[in-house]
Amino acid sequence: MDSNKKYWKGLEELQQTPAFVENKKGEFAEPIPVEDVLNEAGLSTRTPRRDFLKALGFGLGAVTLAACNRTPVHKAVPYVIKPEEVTPGIPNFYASSFNGQSVLVRTREGRPISLTANPNSIGLNQGTDAITSAVVLDLYDMSKLQNPQLDGKDVDWSTLDKTVIDALNKAAAAGKQIAIVSNTVNSPTALAAIATFTAKYPTAVHIQVDAVSYSGIIEANRASFGKAVIPSYHFANANVVVSVAADFLGSWLAGEEHTQDYIRNRDYKSLKNGKMSRHIQFESGLSMTGSNADVRIAIKPSEEGAVLVSLYNAITGQSLAGGVSNKKAQTAITLAAKELTNNRGNALVVAGSNDVNIQLLANAINSALGAYGAIIDLDNYSKQFQGSDAAFQQFLSTAAAGQVGAAFFLNSNPVYDYVKANDVTNALSKIDFTLSFADRADETASTLKAIAPASSFLESWGDASAKEGYFTIVQPTINPVFNTRQAEQSLLVWAGDNTNIYDFVRKNWEENILAGTGKSWNEVLQLGFIYKGSSVGSSYTANVDVNAVANAIGTTSKTIVGDFELKLYESTVMRDGRYANNAFLQELPDPVSKVTWDNYAALNPRDAEKIGLGENGKVTVEANGYSVELPVVLQPGQALGTVSVAVGYGRTKVGKAGNNVGQNAYPFARLVNGSVQFEAKANVAKASGTYELAQTQTHHTIEGRNIIRETTFAKYLKDPNSESGRFADSHKTYDLWNKFESPGHKWVMAIDLNACTGCGSCIVACSVENNVPVVGRDEVRRRREMHWLRIDRYYTLETEGGRLTEEKEIAKASDYDYEDVTVVHQPMLCQHCDHAPCETVCPVLATVHSSEGLNHMAYNRCFGTRYCANNCPFKVRRFNWFNYWNDSRFDNYLNNEFTQLVLNPDVTTRSRGVMEKCSMCIQRIQGGKLQAKMENRKLRDGDVKMACQEACSANAIIFGDVNDPESEVSKALRNERVYYVLEEINVQPNIGYMTKVRNTFEA
Amino acid sequence: MRNISSVLGRLAKTVSVGMMLLFAVTMAHAQDVKEGETLFKSKCTTCHSVSRNMVGPALAGMSERHSEEWLLSWIKNSQALIASGDETAVQLFEDWNRLVMTSFTDLSDDQIKSIIAYVDAEGAKAAEGGGDAASGGAGSTQSSDANTLMIFGLIAIVVLVIIVIVVLNRVIRTLEKVIASNQAAIEAAQAENEAYEEDRFGKFARAFIRNKKLVGFSVLMLVAFLGVLGWNTMWNVGVHEGYQPVQPIKFSHQIHAGVNQIECQYCHGGAFKSKNASIPSANVCMNCHNTVTAADHYDGETSPEIAKIYRALDYDPATREYGDNPKPIEWVRIHNLPDFAYFNHSQHVSVAGVECQTCHGPIETMEEVYQYSPLTMKWCVDCHKTTEVNADNAYYDQLIEAHEKLKKGEKMTAAMIGGLECGKCHY
């Protein structure tokens, strides 16, 4: 059965723009001038035939000569004294933690090469987000400082220590404040070190401020419940989720934890039990969370409060003033309120705003819905964001008044990310002594007196407590590469405490954390975490003066109403900009817009039309007296009259890869009611010139073929086979080729489209595991990105009359406001077809099928005809245009001796001129089989895991041996929802997809 | 191809060993000295040397320092002697860091006396040898190595050549005188000869060029010859069979794996559990070379090759202490598989049970290691085609069809279960 929906990747495809048609027509992304060279006119072209032959002749001769040198002598240098636990060739795993998540660090011969989630942990993540996967690259970052600095000059630690202690004593003697400004510190050890420091210098204060602030929630909870905390949200227990501008699957609070919980109600196991949650999203820009919603309503930022007011009225039957006037939103709210009240106790409303009043109203609604307890847990609260905007403002005014004697900045970069950078620089100039613990001379650190570079978490002892009762350990996996010292150690030294940091951490754990758990320090080092929290939070009732709150919301909203309303957001990939120098992250396409290496102004296509913008246009965005020029993305789903800009870009002093990528959007934010808010009134005007974004959305198009299957939950309940459109069910197939036998294993994959949120962490994990090079912005523009795995994002237009068929839609495309789109994310990788079209066209048999059902790629055989890529219906093959690992033109990214230490030694780095593609992590398959043979046993299901699978918190990717009927993947593939892409052309893919199910209202 | 220096080195060793044997025979005067030597080498050398302090003191002159009676009781049970409060014994014990000497209660008095006799003889010899060396006597030939031999050889050759040149010069001068007297006759004869030669060669060349068939055949032969030569050369590009680089330490597998029968696994443990066979780190060497210094071959000195291990570890054998400036030993890699080929030792050694010698050749006889196998893909594939899989491994129970075949007693080679597929080695 063919789907009657029209799916499109970008407006170019929907409108079939000339450039798009031209690009998809060509055999190769850039045509080869074969005709020009060979025809009669060839002699007069730029590369005439004779020149070509001359060049060919010379090339041949030169290569022959170059090949005549002697074989180089290779040295083999063993350890002088081999550490007992290291066996060259075998990885070691260490339990550690990153940003509070328990992770395993894989090291080879003493160097960390990847991070995966700790499979035994009950904590925040089953998988890893993109940053966690990519962060191992930051250890090998050449832009880091190699020595401590004083006044911009390298010094040794003793000199720095002396200077710092003198400055501290001076400040203490003068009775001036000593400030430690940091982002949220939840590490018990770091807090203990700060306490030791404060005990020595009584005027010291610790100020926590986060670049992206959640102080609105903290203050609201203080007012409502007397608990100034951010609760844990248990999405697994919510049957109905209403989110007002909260990107809770991506950047809001703990995206990975929310994803794994949220998907538990929507994946194939849940659907098998006839259960699926309903998710309604109100937002202005199309966020990743919005793209996964069952129902999404585009609203303006100024309407966020109004939506909550209306929702409150609809649920409680009260009539607060200031409800929403938007028709579409009103209808949705009525339906949503009905759903929420029907599911009282199993319903949740979250709001993304940092406005205390909006959060207070959300508290009131959740309290009315009985969400406090099982769903919103105020007892086992989150400690990931404790920053206080008010405290930082207080610090700035104290400093400006000359009352601060010394200030230390720990993981804090206010010159870049604070709303008013001028206030910060002004305050800094009034402080006698300033120091940063940054690992590089960043925007703030470079203006300070001293830098005491802190070691990476992979080089440090430490811990974290991201949640009440949940403690994770940080243990070093490599000696400090540069002359760095972790910040906790520095604070201890300056406080006159010469305890080694290892002893300090261990003592702190043994005295304060391990007491009563019956676990020893060594057990913790192996486990990686301790959980002491209670199971379920107790229920609370919010105490909110809703009338006052509604009035305040009305007042605040009015200040941002304008022709254009600006909404700042954290992108799923770049977050607050801390990891901007990570090339893996910069090249990861945004889950929705598919833009790499830039931020941009997202506008509704209709608005762009009004301003007179087309593709590659630029706009000047002005708000709060700050204005920048930004390239425009015509974003379907963007609310009319709004513009969205991502923060975290526009860093100027972060390093080679991240400098001057995009524009800084933090100064657009506003300080309202004491908290930093990301909404503002803006002016948007067309700017001169054009700018081509490196956007991957229409690269590797598969020509509108029907590869997405989508159904609704109601239809699914009636018929689980609904819309799966299995071709084989209704057609007889004839084979031109012999059947491939897989007598041993047959490796297959199942991908649940309903679980995939499109976050892209699998792409980074794949790149790290398989040494996939980063190519940079220019090469991405030339459609040469190397990712073995991509996530295709397809839009469909929604209208009041339901979805339209292809023909009607194109004819009437001009009638839509592009506000109502739905999105499907489809991970696309080599399908390992049993009848692979790529294999038959390879003239040198470089790509052949294996008896285990894999499509092998022998790089050393390939000589780069690119026929296979051209013949691949899924467009998953990538061509190496350069020796990315050994070419000075790619110096910004991964090409230097130091950064190359991140490479996985079990996978070759491909040379220029060969094809590459997903190998199904064959090194892991071979490794798993070998392990089984060495242990003289059968291979068990789950012994071999793909890198993408390990990274996925949503468990959307299931891999295994289909010849084992009891394997998880066999069970998953027996699901009724399974279909195979392009099954009708009988390529027999080995990756099964499960239909996307949407729990919509109308069905 | 082994290089000349190693051949010369071996020659030098043979010569010096022969000299030593000769020396030993002339020196052998008493039966007890011989017996003493055997006993000394089996019981004492772990901790003692005649002329050098090791774990225990140098033994030369011990019969002068101590009475025979004292020595007998000390060697039999030093702790008892110390316990009895003997002053000398206590002093010695204190001087040597209270290291307890093994008791040799099983040695008879006569045996101990033989050892003492041997030590005395060796001590006297060493003193003599030292004097000889100082005066540049024949004693130094014992420690002569390949280099000095070569230098002497070269000098001899140079002298010989000069003599030959001088003699030849004399002869030439005499002949020149004779020639001068017959010049005219010779010139006439030469002219006649040249004309004849030219004519004969020209005729032959013209006849050859006129004969098209012959020309064609010759060209064909030349092309065929060059073709075969080129083809063979091309096939062997990058094949380094027999590659035997000079290593930083003249490590002999023949001594370690051959004579001493040390298991391969002892040093190359990685081969059994990892993809890398791994070269042992210097601390593994020290497990034995802490005491084994081959000093008996080097006149009581530590072997210069073993000393290189000490240098790598910054280890001082005199104080038995490790310094803080270790330098790794940079071995030259012999077996260089290209980066795009994945090879795992444990798969072959532990799972398949392939002997090390199958690929590395008679390693236990190699003085210096060379590449025995060509390491070409053809070589890999040939073996995969013929080698049967190890059917006892429970892993293969899973491969149903393979298992069925094995049960029927049919052959199952690595190739039949996918051992020839590209992706098994190239990824």
UniProtKB/TrEMBL annotation, chain A:
InterPro entries: 4Fe4S_Fe-S-bd (IPR017896), Asp_de-COase-like_dom_sf (IPR009010), MoPterin_dinucl-bd_dom (IPR006657), TAT_var_transloc_signal_dom (IPR030948)
SUPFAM superfamilies in alphabetical order: 4Fe-4S ferredoxins, ADC-like, Formate dehydrogenase/DMSO reductase, domains 1-3
Gene Ontology MF term list: molybdopterin cofactor binding; oxidoreductase activity
Domain 4Fe-4S ferredoxin-type: 747-777
A Pfam family annotated for this UniProt entry: Fer4_11
Protein name per the record: Molybdopterin oxidoreductase
TrEMBL record, chain B:
Keywords, comma-separated and alphabetical: Coiled coil, Heme, Iron, Membrane, Metal-binding, Signal, Transmembrane, Transmembrane helix
Chain segments annotated as transmembrane: 149-168, 214-235
Domain Cytochrome c: 31-123
InterPro entries recorded: Cyt_c-like_dom (IPR009056), Cyt_c-like_dom_sf (IPR036909), Cyt_c7-like (IPR029467), Multihaem_cyt_sf (IPR036280)
Signal peptide: 1-30
Pfam family name, one: Cytochrome_C7
GO molecular function term, any single one: electron transfer activity
Coiled-coil parts of chain: 172-199
Descriptive protein name: Cytochrome C
Organism: Sphingobacterium gobiense
